[in-house]
Each structure stands twice: as C-alpha cells, then as structure tokens.
Design a protein that fits this description.
397 residues, alpha/beta, Rossmann fold, Argininosuccinate synthetase, chain A, domain 2, 2 domains, five-stranded parallel β-sheet, five-stranded antiparallel β-sheet, 14 strands, elongated
Amino acid sequence: MARKVVLAYSGGLDTSIIIPWLIENHGCEVIAMIGDVGQKEDLEAARRKALATGASAASIEDLREEFITEYIWPTLRAGAVYEHKYLLGTSFARPVLAKRQAEVALRIGADALAHGCTGKGNDQVRFELAYKAIAPKLRIIAPWREWQIQSREDALAYARAHNVPVAQTKADLYSRDRNIWHLSHEGGILEDPANAPEESMWQWIASPESAPDKPTELEIGFEAGTPVSIDGKRLNAVALLEWLNAIAAANGVGRIDLVENRLVGIKSRGAYETPGGTLLVLAHRELEALCLDRETAHYAQILAHRYAELVYYGLWFTALRQALDAFFAVAQQHVTGTVGLRLYKGNVAVTRRQSPHSLYRTDLASFSMARYNPKDAEGFINLFALPVMAPANDSAS
C-alpha cells in the first residue's frame, strides 16, 4: 500500500472524489498538486476544497510560461495538427502537468502518483508515460481502473455520499478541460455524432452570428517560427496568447467539432474551442509557405504528421520527439516575418505575408519572361517525362 500519494488535482468531478476514495481505500496521505496552465479557474478555491475533502497538503504550480514556451511553441513550429483538425490542446498539457507532479513527488519523498483519467481515454497514457520517464520507480494509482464507479452519474452519487461539493449536475454531464490554448467538451449529447453541439455548450468563443459586424485586423510577428509580437508590439508568451485568445474569441474564431481516433482504438467525438491557437497555426503555415524551400516544406509536412501523433499518444519525453525538434529548429531558422489576418464572424482571411527571408521572387513569379528562358523547359519536361514514357514505349514494342 502506498503511504504518500501526489494527486494531479483540478477540483473537477473526478479528482474531487479521488481524495476521499484514496484515503478510504488505500489509507494513504494525499497531497494535491494543482497545475496552473491558464485554465482561468479559481485555483485557490480548488486548493481549499482539496484540503477540506481530506488532502494533507495542496499546492498551486504556475506552469503557464513553461507550458507555452516548452510545449506549445515547439508543437506550433512543427506544424503538428492531429487528424487535420485537432490542435492538441489537451494532449500537450498533460506532459507538463505530469512532469511537475512527478517532480513534486520526488521532492517530498512520496511513493505513488495518482490521476483522475478514465480507463478509456488518452490521458491515462499521457500522464503515465510522463511518470515513467520522470519518476519510473514510483507506483501509479489510477482509480478509474480500480473502483466500482462506472459513469458520471455514479461519480455524482459518490460525491453526494461523501459530502464533496462538485459543479457538475445530471443536466450538464459534459467533461471539460481548459487551459490557455483551448477548452474541450466531451460527453453529453456529443456522444452521438448525429447530434449538433448545443449553443449553450460553448463557453469561450462567441457564436459567429453574434460576433461584431465589422472585421478585425491584426498582424502576428514570428522569429524562427516562434510568435513574438502582435501589431508590432513584442509580448511575452502568456500575454501574447491571451491577447490573441481575446481577439479570436470575440470574433467567433476557433470552434471545432470532430470525430477522432483515440490511442486506445476507440473513436470519440469532441468539440474544441481554440481561439488564439487557430490564428497562430494559420499564420505560421502562411509564413512557412513564404520562407521554406519546396523540399524542406514537403518533408516538414511528413514529420509534422508524426510529431502530432507523438504528442497525441503521450510520447513527449522520447528521443524521437527531441530529434524532430532538432530538425524543426533548423528548418524554422528563416521563418521570420509577419502575417496579416482579417477576422470576421468566425472566418479568418490572410491579408499579407512579409519576411526578410522570403523566397518569393516577383521577377520569377510574374508572367514576364525576363531572367527566365522558356526554352529550358523543353529539356526539363523531356527528362521529367522519362518514367511516364517508359511503359508506353514497352507496350508499343
């Protein structure tokens, strides 16, 4: 039996009932670690709640700067998007939380780590792979794989029986996860892909219909693939992302509804609100188009797909992810410049792209034949066509 357990605590339904469950079933001391990844919640209230429901200690860890600069920005530079649409908001938040949780456990001499992830989801893998990378000798307790609770309704009943206050009700059974990058919604009517999301479900981004009638324009600046400024004003990572979140959310930009393939082999349906991230991914992609040569750009697309899988699968602390970061560090050296965007009622249009390292040559891209000999194309086409012509010649013979 574990003596001292550090629990990744959010104050939501699952982790709220885990504290009394651990004490009741494992007889251990519980230390709650609350990670601030920009979820805009009353974390001090969550800390007090953890103590009131049995935790011997509870701490709030400010992880916002580390989360953005060490997890979000590398993923953005890689252009990693999972299955065309998912901007990985929950995926890369898990390793930064789990890393700090494991570090806290090692520092205070705990012998176990616990999380509130369900036995069906991806997060259990993400947390536990991080634990095994940072603190491989510590025991892992995953209550959803042990207890008799089978549903949200069961969890609510357990909370009532143990006098644990929770915000969720039977009328609102959405499972939500929020951080500075996104807000996710799962469960409820979303479990049937035939159901459209309820307007009341969305909590962050304005509906396109209610967005301002006048477009909003802004310019995002990048250095070596990393966002550094808005409208020419340099900002730290937290301020920059919060500013973009506010602008995009007000203009109805960043709502996503998708069916995805979970790592455990189950298809799931979720709705995501990623306001500032939607702007950054688009702007970064447009600047890459200007600054990367064709071969690097096309190969980066292949690696971006793999990078997205690694993040989604929880394989952050791996040699392959570090090696891919090394590739993108070189590939992004010249992805410096600005991209102008126009936001209007849920839509984003690119208005301009500028870079001191632009590979776009007006004299070559124009219809003018100056500095270009069209006769050279004939030999190029003949050589390029050899693989196409070979089967035809074989059949002719």
